[in-house]
């Protein structure tokens, strides 16, 4: 039986794409650069806010100064508006309730900066059994480096054989592989199934309830 489930955040627990897009477009407008349609953003997210900003900026405008100023504008806006349009994926609140009732510990590890991760989790899932709520902080490398998973395991000591890592991208599957824990790719997020397969996901699921079956599996 698995006793700890580590979740990615964006595209896994929550559909955050509209709020991420709006904050990025706000940053682009603030600096006088073109904005992007909402449909573009699923392919731009997943490697942290700095990488999102770099991708949103025009090719010839990706200077350190522009990236820094756009990041500041993004964070100022997103800190106030990160819960405007974000919604849990269908079945996720029920899944977290079921896992908590079973005594399964939960963690979230995200490439999003940590202040926003904590605010979003507290807003949407205040009663879930999250033992670690981790985002990107200065000095800690981003996924697929497994350091953030190791930090979660230090906060919630669990044998790796009893851990599931759940995410929607190849980055997440690679993170799990490097951390030597079992990976679960979800099809409701921002990346295609082909990416999960190419990243050698141990399991690919289409509904949150399937995680319960994996938890109970010997």
Strand order across the largest sheet: 5-4-1-6-7-8
> What is the CATH superfamily classification of the largest domain?
HAD superfamily/HAD-like
How many whole angstroms does the radius of gyration measure?
17 Å
Structural class: alpha/beta
Beta-strand segment tally:
8
Low-confidence runs of at least 5 consecutive residues: none
Largest sheet descriptor: 6 strands, parallel
Q: How helix-rich are the residues, as a percent range?
A: 40-55%
The whole-number mean of residue pLDDT values reads: 96
Q: How many domains, in number, for the residues?
A: 2
Number of helices: 9
CATH topology of the largest domain: Rossmann fold
CATH class of the largest domain: Alpha Beta
Cα shape:
globular
CATH architecture of the largest domain: 3-Layer(aba) Sandwich
User: SSE order in H/E notation?
Assistant: EEHHHEHEHEHEHEHEH
Quick summary of this structure?
The protein has nine helices and eight strands. The chain has 218 residues and is α/β, with parallel strands linked by helices.
Q: Would you write up a description of this structure?
A:
The protein is α/β, with parallel strands linked by helices. About 45% of the residues lie in helices and about 15% in strands. It folds into two domains: about 5-15 and about 90-215, Rossmann fold, CATH 3.40.50; about 15-80, Orthogonal Bundle (DNA polymerase, domain 1), CATH 1.10.150. The protein has helices spanning about 15-30, 50-55, 65-80, 90-100, 115-125, 145-155, 170-180, 195-200, 210-215, and strands at about 5, 15, 85-90, 105-115, 130-135, 165, 180-185, 205. Helix 1 (about 15-30) packs across helix 3 and helix 2 (about 50-55) packs across helix 3. The chain is globular, with a radius of gyration of 17 Å. The chain starts with a strand and ends with a helix.
């Amino acid at each position: 039986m698995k006793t700890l489930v580590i979740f990615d955040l964006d595209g896994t627990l929550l559909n955050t794409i509209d709020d991420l897009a709006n904050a990025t477009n706000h940053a682009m407008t603030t600096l006088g650069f073109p904005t992007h349609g909402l449909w573009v953003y699923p392919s731009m997210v997943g490697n942290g806010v700095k990488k999102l900003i770099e991708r949103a900026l025009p090719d010839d405008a990706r200077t350190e100064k522009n990236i820094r100023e756009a990041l500041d504008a993004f964070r100022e806006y997103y800190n106030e508006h990160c819960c405007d349009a974000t919604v849990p994926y269908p079945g996720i609140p029920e899944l977290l309730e079921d896992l908590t009732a079973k005594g399964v510990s939960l963690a979230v590890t995200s490439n999003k900066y940590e202040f926003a991760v904590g605010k979003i989790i507290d807003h949407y899932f205040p009663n879930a059994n999250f033992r670690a709520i981790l985002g990107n902080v200065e000095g800690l490398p981003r996924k697929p480096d497994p350091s953030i998973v190791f930090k979660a395991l230090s906060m919630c000591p669990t044998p790796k054989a009893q851990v599931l890592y759940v995410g929607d991208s190849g980055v997440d599957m690679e993170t799990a592989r490097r951390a030597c824990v079992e990976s679960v790719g979800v099809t409701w997020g921002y990346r295609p199934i082909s990416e999960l397969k190419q990243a050698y996901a141990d399991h690919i699921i289409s509904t949150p309830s399937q995680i319960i079956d994996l938890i109970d599996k010997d």
